[in-house]
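TEACHING EXERCISE
Course module: macromolecular assemblies
Task: Read the component lines below, then compare them to the predicted structure of the full complex.
Student: A.B.
Group: 4
Components provided:
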Amino acid sequence: MKSKPVILCYSRNDITNFVVLMILGFAIIPFIVPTDYWYTSILIPWLCLSLAAIGQQIVMGYAGQLALGAAGFMAAGAFALFNLELRLPFLPFPVALGIAGLIAAAFGIIFGLPSLRVRGIYLMVATLASQFFIIWMIDKFGWFKNYDTSGIITAQDIVIFNKPFTTPFEMYLVIMVVVTVLTIFAINMTRGRTGRNWMAVRDMDLAAESMGISLLKTKLQAFAISAFFCGVAGALFAFTYLKSMEPVAFDIKLSFRILFMVILGGLGTISGAFIGAAFILLFPVVLNTFGNEFFHGMIDATIISSIELVVFGVLIIVFMIYEPLGMAKLWENLKLRIRSKFSNRFGGEQKA
Amino acid sequence: MSEERNFPIGNAILEIKNISLSFGGVKAITNTSFTVLEHEIRAIIGPNGAGKSSLLNCINGIYKPQEGSISFKGKMLEKINPNFIAQQGISRTFQNLALFKRMSVLDNILVGRQLHMSANFLQVALQLPKAMEEEQSNLAKCEEIVEFLEIHHIRDTPVGKLPYGLQKKVELGRALATDAEVLLLDEPMAGMNVEEKREMCRFILKVNDELGTTMVLIEHDMGVVMDISDNVVVLDYGKIIGDGPPDQVRSNQAVIDAYLGVAHD
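Instructor-supplied answer key:
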C-alpha cells in the first residue's frame, strides 16, 4: 500500500530519507572525509554523473525513448557555461549554469525529433547524431573554444556572490546543492502528471494518444528535460572534475557509461541513477585495490582493466535477464525482506 | 429496457456516413453508414474479420477512412487522429488490452484524467499550488472510480501483474476517467467467465444509467448483446447487414445466414 503523503507529494518515509541523506551529505561527510582525494576523484564525479544519469533516466527509463548521446548534451552544457562565463562575466554563476542547461535542452529538442518517427534501436542510432554533431561543432568552430590552439582550456573558477569556490570541498558543496535541488524537481515531475504522461507513452503509446496525450509534446519534453539535466551535469563535470574544457572527455564512451548506469541502476527509478553511477564509478576502484592487495603485482594492471570490462558485460547481461529493474529494485526487495523478517519476529513474540 | 431511464435515448450523437476503409487491396469496410443515438448502448456484432474493430478504430481516429465522414454532436470531425478525437469527448478500450503495464492501477486511471489537467512541467516540478490542487481533485475522482469498479484492493499494484479479468476492469476505469460522452468498448468481455461477464454488464449498465454515457460496444456473446444493448448493428464482410433493436435483428434472415451459413444446393 502506498503511504499517505504528509507534505505536498511526500510521504513520511520520503521525508525521513531526505533528512537522513541531507545530514549525511552536508554534516557527516564533511567531517569523516578529510582527504581531497575522496572529493575530487569519487564524490564530485559521482554526483555529476548521477545527475547526467537522471537525465538519461528521464528520456529512457521514464519516457521509454532509447536515446544514446548523453555525453553530447553534457559537452553542450559544459561549453555553453564556458562561453557564458567568458563572454558574459556579469552573469551570476547559478544563472549561467541554468542558461547552459537550457542551451543543452534546445539541442535535446532538435535531436529528439527523430523519436517522432523511429523507435527502439533505430532511434538509438539516430540519437547518436547528437553525440557526434555537438563534439564536431565544438571542434570545428574555434569560437566555442575561444580560438584556443593549445587544446587544453582551463575552466573558470566558480564564483558565487563574490566568493570563489575552488577547493574540492567547496566545489562539493556547490554540486551537492545543485544535485539536491534538481533531484527534487525530477522526483516531483516523475510522480506528477508530467511523469505519468512519459510513462504512458513508454508503456503503450497508442493508448496514451487515445487518452489525449500528445506524443509530439511529451516526447520532445522528455528529450528537452533530459538534455537540461545532462547539460547542467556536463557543465559541473567540466568545471569541477575535469577543470578544463576538452571535447574529448565527452566522447561516446561516456555516453555508454551513462547508459550502463541507468540499466544497472534500474530503469524508471531516480534512485537507480545514483546507485548505477556509484557502481560504475566505484567498481574499477574496488577491483583495482582488490587486485593490488591480493595479487601484489602478479596480475598486470592492463589485465585488471580488461577483467573490469568483462565483468561489466556479464553483469549487464545478468541484470537484463534476471532483474530488468536493476539494483534499485534489488535494494527495495532487500528492504522488504528485512522488514518482513523483523515484523515476523515481532509478531511471533507477541503471540508467545 | 425499462422506460424510466435517467437519460432517455435522444437524438443522433455520432453519425457515420458512407465510410470506406481498405488496406491495400483488402477492403475492410465498404460504404458503411449508421447513427449512434445519445445515451444508448449500441452493440456492433458480426463474424470474425467483419470489420468491427476497424470501424471503432476509424471512429477513434487510429485509422483514416479513405471515404466518408464522421460527425460528432452534429459537427463533422475535421481532424482524424486519436488525440483530437479524445479531446472531443470520445474514449475507448482496446480489444487486446492496451494498459500501461508498469504503472499502478491508480496511475493508469489517472492518465485517463489527462484532458482535465493542465499544469505544465514547471508547475509540477516546483509543486506549485495549481499542480497540487489539480492532482488532488483528479486523484479524488479516480478513487471514486476505483470504488465504483470495486478494485480498491489492487489500486497500487502494477497493472501488468494483474489477472486478465481485472485488467479489463482497469481499462474500463481508465476510459471512464476521461468523462467522455461516448465510450467505444472493443470486446470488453472477451475471455471472461460467466461471473466476470455478468459483473462487467452490471458496470456498463450502471454507467449508462447514472452518467448517461453513450456506449458503442463490440461483443461476441449473443446473450450479453441481446440483454444490454438498445440497438444492434450487424457487420459482415465490411458491410452492414442489419441495424435495429435486438429482437428485430435476431429475426433478420441476412443475419441468421451470416452467422449460421447458408445451405448451397
